Amino acid sequence: DRDDGRARFGPGYKRVALPDRCLVTVETARGDRLAYGARCLNRNFRHAGKLPSGCETVVRTRRGFRTVYGARCLERDGWQVLARR
């Protein structure tokens, strides 16, 4: 057994579908984009800590600034994005 310092994830953790309830539409200068709310994912998705930081962004909403993960970015990284609104 050799420990090379990398995290060991169970097989197929990316195959677990991201919760639909966390999917939101974010208005941007280039049109509406689908994203997953970070707070919702932290509360409702066991593997939220493994999501790529490169997909994380802060957006301004009517209720203040919110951290979200871009759905397209997550999908490109191999995560299961269920719905398209």
Summarize the structure.
This protein has 85 residues and is an alpha+beta fold. It has two helices and four strands.
Q: Can you tell me about this structure?
A:
By secondary structure, this protein is α+β, with helices and mostly antiparallel strands. Strands 1-2-4-3 form a four-stranded antiparallel sheet. β3 and β4 form a beta hairpin. It has two helices and four strands; from the N terminus they run ββαββα. It is globular and about 35 Å long. The chain starts with 22 loop residues before the first strand and ends in a 9-residue tail after the last helix. It has helices at 38-44, 71-76; strands spanning 23-28, 31-37, 56-61, 64-70. The protein has a domain at 18-76. It is 15% helix and 31% strand.
Features:
four-stranded antiparallel beta sheet, globular, alpha+beta, 85 residues, 2 helices
Task: Provide the fold topology.
Blueprint: E1 23-28, E2 31-37, H1 38-44, E3 56-61, E4 64-70, H2 71-76
Antiparallel strand pairs: 1-2, 2-4, 3-4
Give the amount of beta strand, in percent.
25-35%
Q: If helices are DSSP runs of H or I spanning 4 or more residues, what is the number of helices? A: 2
As laid out across the biggest beta sheet, the strand order is 1-2-4-3
Average pLDDT works out at 86
Helix share of residues?
10-25%
State the secondary-structure class: alpha+beta
The dominant shape is globular
Main sheet? 4 strands, antiparallel
The value of Rg in angstroms is 14 Å
Low-confidence stretches: none
Q: Distance between termini?
A: 46 Å
- The helix/strand order is EEHEEH
The number of strands is: 4
